[in-house]
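Deliverable D4.2, example record:
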Amino acid sequence: MPTYEYRCKSCDHEFEVVQSFTDDALTVCPECSGPLKKVFGNVGITFKGSGFYKTDSRSAGSFGSTSDSDRSDRKSSSSSSSDS
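Output generated by the structure prediction step:
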């Protein structure tokens, strides 16, 4: 069962509760009987395998591809900025 973290909006009391997915969310603070808010934290992600690259699972010419004209534009703008 997952662990949920709650914070009271009135007294800022924070606590964790182990609840089933089907359980209703808590609404009353056990300390001051004020309203509660469920706190969402970061999720840990683990990448396993030989590596993950920007080009994995993409077809040629999709997102992020650079055309020849874009490359020449970049070269001309970078050379003009270094000339100044």
